Amino acid sequence: MPKHGKKYQDATKQVERHRLYEMTEALDLVKKVAPAKFDETVEVAIRLGVDPRHADQQVRGAVVLPNGTGKTRTVLVFAKADKVKEAEEAGADFVGAEDMVEKIQKEGWLGFDVAIATPDMMGLVGKLGRILGPRGLMPNPKTGTVTFDVANAVKEVKAGKITYRVDKAGIVHAPIGKVSFDTAKIVENLRTLVDTLIRVKPAAAKGQYIKGVTVTSTMGPGVSINTQKITG
To answer: Name one Pfam family in it (predicted).
Structure first.
């Protein structure tokens, strides 16, 4: 089992392992102990009271974080005719149809973070399911990436829209900012994500819904948050 470096170990010593911190205090601490020299991403892991094995307890969607993630995301749009110009004017990095599908199929090109498609393109884009699906890049109506309103979709991604999906362990992982962000901005992003998850709570989910929240930086230790305060 690999050992953590000295910087990580020093950072860990500053975090009380079994303590549930207040949200602002937790994020201040994450920023303080981030051990890397680069601007680390602040991430959150939210454990939900759902059983992902059941279709009626799946939690998936998208949300625009008010302060963005601090990362510039590259957008590919599958579109034709007037929607091509619309996507380009909105700031899409790549726009195309058959040419883009062929580039991905034959060259293995994946130089984008988000793919958006107009509904009439999904018959063509569907051929890429085996390539894009496992990587979480397949356009999906549930995340707002299959739409005729490509301009708005592109602008939302550029503004800080993220997708979320509960994993097999019932946990939602998401980026909520950078260590260089003001703590207040990260707090606002986190609250927006939590409020969204509460709003889309499956009717079949019983008992406590938000069961655990842990924040961390890319290279730093996790800090647990008091869930009673975060959902209040």
So the answer is: Ribosomal_L1
The DSSP code sequence of 36-73 is -SS-PEEEEEEEES--TTSGGG--EEEEE-TT--S---
224 membership: H or E segment, kind and range: strand 223-225
For residues 23 and 216, what is the distance between their CA atoms, to the nearest angstrom?
Answer: 12
List, in sequence order, every beta strand (DSSP E) within 135-191.
Answer: 161-165, 171-178
pLDDT tens profile 138-159? 999 988 999 999 999 999 999 9
SS3 186: helix
What is the Cα–Cα distance from 158 to 32, expressed in whole angstroms? 28
**110 and 222 together in one domain:** no
Token readout for 208 is: 């406590």
1 is a domain residue = no
79 with 153, same domain: the answer is yes
Residue ending a domain, choose from 158, 193, 213: 158
Q: What is the pLDDT of residues 59-90, one digit of tens each?
A: 999 999 999 999 889 999 999 999 999 999 99
CATH number at residue 100: 3.40.50.790
Q: How far apart are CA 220 and CA 8, in angstroms?
A: 6
Residue ranges in the chain modelled with pLDDT below 70 = 1-4, 231-232
Edge to edge, what strands does the sheet with 94-96 contain? 94-96, 75-78, 114-117
pTM for the whole structure = 0.82
